[in-house]
Specification:
Blueprint (H helix, E strand, L loop, with lengths): L3 E5 L2 H7 L3 E7 L4 H6 L5 E7 L5 E7 L3 H13 L4 H6 L9 H13 L5 H5 L1 H11 L11 H9 L2 H10 L6
Antiparallel strand pairs: 1-4, 2-3, 3-4
Length: 169
């Protein structure tokens, strides 16, 4: 009986919801570890949002599925994108390399991001945490800077630090 693990949405759920998506597939036999293990069967599938490129679901059937799914789960929970899998290095030879293969498979079918697409309000909102990770954590990360700006005293404090003079001098 082959191992089966999944996290997130299925293709059927996405289709029923009318949500645009792209699928990336990797066959475990195509990885170096799959060849070392002599695997003939096994598939890793990643579902990506066609607009934001975020991971929507991961489905794995075959050897090591229960040990591989946590990578997809982390990407899903952290709102990871297709680019994460394409741009990062996976240990070699491991079955986890299938994530990169599947991402490249989806990347080859997805439209390239162009300036007008990036300017899209919806896309910018969805990518805001990716482009500026501190943005969604709130202003409490740098309260002194924010409070100084609110009070209009940012320039006075800067002058005091650089010249040693008090703001009233």
């Amino acid at each position: 009986i082959p191992e089966l693990s999944m996290v997130g949405a299925t293709e059927q759920e996405l289709a029923e919801a009318g949500r645009p998506y792209e699928v990336g597939v990797a066959r475990l036999r195509e990885t170096a570890r799959g060849q070392i293990l002599g695997l003939d069967h096994g598939t890793l599938k990643i579902l990506f949002c066609a607009n934001t490129r975020r991971v929507l679901g991961v489905h794995i059937l075959g050897e090591g599925a229960t040990e591989l799914v946590h990578i997809g789960q982390a990407a899903l929970v952290l709102q990871g994108t297709l680019e994460y899998f394409v741009e990062n290095v996976f240990n070699y030879p491991t079955l986890a390399e299938a994530y990169k293969v599947a991402a490249l498979d989806a990347w080859n079918r997805m439209p390239r991001l162009t300036a007008p697409a990036i300017e899209s309000r919806e896309l910018l909102q969805d990518l805001a945490p990716v482009l500026d990770p501190a943005a969604d954590r709130g202003p409490e990360l740098i309260p002194a800077k924010n409070e100084a700006k609110k009070a209009g005293k940012g320039d006075e404090k800067k002058k005091e630090r650089t010249t040693g003079a008090s703001p009233s001098a």
